[in-house]
Amino acid sequence: MASRWSPYEIEAIKRAYPEFKAFVTKPSLDSIVVEFLEQYEVYVKPASSAEGRSTGDRLSDGMVGGIAGPAAVAANQGLRGQQKNTAVQEWTQWKQWSLDHNDFEALRAERVNDWEKLNNHLESDEFAEEWSIKKEILTAIDKEQHKTLRSEYMIGAAFSVALIGILVLLGISHEQNKKNRNLRSSQILQHIELASQLT
Q1: What are the tens digits of pLDDT across the range 32-62?
Q2: SS3 label, residue 199
Q3: Residue-wise DSSP of 45-59
Q4: 1, 56, 60, 159: which sits with the fewest CB atoms below 10 Å from its CB?
Q5: Are the beta carbons of 20 and 122 closer than 8 angstroms?
């Protein structure tokens, strides 16, 4: 069943309601297996032989190929293939162990039930009304924050302009004082020189 919410609205809802962050999509069997295994301090992730290679793997192939040549690339890919096969086998064994465990079905049913409750709430008319009100409040808060930021920016800009103006005036004043001192000094020297010529 398609959701009544667009992907954009789903993201906004997840930001506004933390309980929806993890539950917007139905939990997969693999994600429940991972959670179940973590209860037993087994930390493995789903591995699939159909999975594509990462960008880092492809980049390292190119770097190895450029430095050591095609033989090194083939060896590197062979090693990666063995590691991948080992990861797939390990995941398959742990997943089967989980599925066979007596406590697994209770956790799976609980997670699916939790998701169904949240999803039903998310798709309900009551939530739609609640979200409509909350969205208006969030929009008003956002506009108010933008006004505040704009005001702070304008005050900061005016302060910066005033500060630059004061510094320019101080610089001009300092230069003028320097010229006046130099003029007085040269006048005093002229008077001393004139006085020494008269004596």
Answers
A1: 999 999 999 999 999 764 444 444 444 444 4
A2: coil
A3: ----TTPPPPHHHHH
A4: 1
A5: yes
Q: Give φ, ψ of 102 to 5 degrees.
A: -60, -30
* Whether the Cβ atoms of residue 13 and residue 122 lie closer than 8 Å to each other: yes
Residue 42's nearest CA partner among 94, 88, 109 is 94
- Look-up of token digits 């302060």: 159
Q: Which two tokens stand for residue 129?
A: 């009304």
* Alpha carbons 91 and 33: distance in angstroms, whole number: 10
Of the chain, the end-to-end C-alpha distance in Å amounts to 114
More confident residue, 196 or 131: 131
Q: Show the CA angle centred on residue 38, arms to residues 34 and 44, nearest 5°.
A: 55
Q: What is the pTM of this model?
A: 0.50
